[in-house]
Amino acid sequence: MAGLLLLLAVGDKLNLGPSEYLLRPLLLGGLLWLFSKRQVDLRAPNWPRSVIVGLAVFFIWVAPDILWPSYRQLWIFNNALTGSPTSSVPEVWRGMPLVIVSRALRAVVLVPIIEELFWRGWLMRWLVNPDFERVPLGTYTRYAFWISALLFASVHGAYWDVGLIAGITYNWWMMRTRNLGDCIVAHAVTNAMLSAYVLTADQWQYW
């Protein structure tokens, strides 16, 4: 997770050109393999319902902008603290297959695994007990549930509102399934639908 946040923070300042979009998934995949391969469990016994959860979060994510096109320009979403709802992909690169494939790979495969390991696999448990390995997945305390959901929202910038709903939904799904793989599937479906929406509807602000 630290690697993901670091790349998001400094990636645009490296000036590596389109090759940066190939470098990012390679670095993240390498870090994931090096540090977390034993913790990743992709078994999802509830995968049909996980797909439905992921689809629901996708529709929640895009609904405000569809129903109210100027919604995201309100000051609470467009300011110095949250940033602006704009794409991090330069317009001149948006037709490049390398950029599209690498960006989609990161969004659909790597980010769901990394974020679910961090938010639901570690943080929710660590907030219950710093010796988090003693805490079963999906253990509920009000403090852990809401703090992790709020922090999840905070890293989504101008989309903090739908990020909060997504965080609440994924937390709830972890409580219901007590299974990391199901949360990864739900998150991956959301990101896959968002990626498809970006490319088919030319809504690059989500990327």
Count of separate DSSP helical elements: 7
Based on secondary structure, the structural category is mainly alpha
What gyration radius follows from the Cα positions, in whole Å?
17 Å
Give the total of beta strands: 0
Biggest sheet record: none
Number of domains: 1
Helix proportion:
55-70%
Please mark out the parts with pLDDT under 50 across 5 or more consecutive residues, or reply none.
none
Question: Could you say which overall geometry the principal axes of the C-alpha atoms support?
Answer: globular
> N-to-C terminal Cα separation, in Å?
18 Å
User: How large a portion of the residues is in β-strands, by DSSP E?
Assistant: under 5%
Order of helices and strands: HHHHHHH
If you average the pLDDT, what whole number results?
90
Oligomer: single chain
Task: Supply the key terms.
mainly alpha; 207 residues; 7 helices
Description:
This protein is mostly helical. 63% of the residues lie in helices and 0% in strands. The chain is built from seven helices and no strands. The protein starts with a helix and ends in a 6-residue tail after the last helix. The mean pLDDT is 90.
Question: How would the blueprint of this fold be written?
Answer:
Blueprint: H1 2-10, H2 20-36, H3 47-67, H4 97-126, H5 142-154, H6 160-177, H7 180-201
Helix pairs in contact: 2-4, 3-6, 3-7, 4-5, 4-7, 5-6, 6-7
Summary?
The protein is mostly helical and 207 residues long.
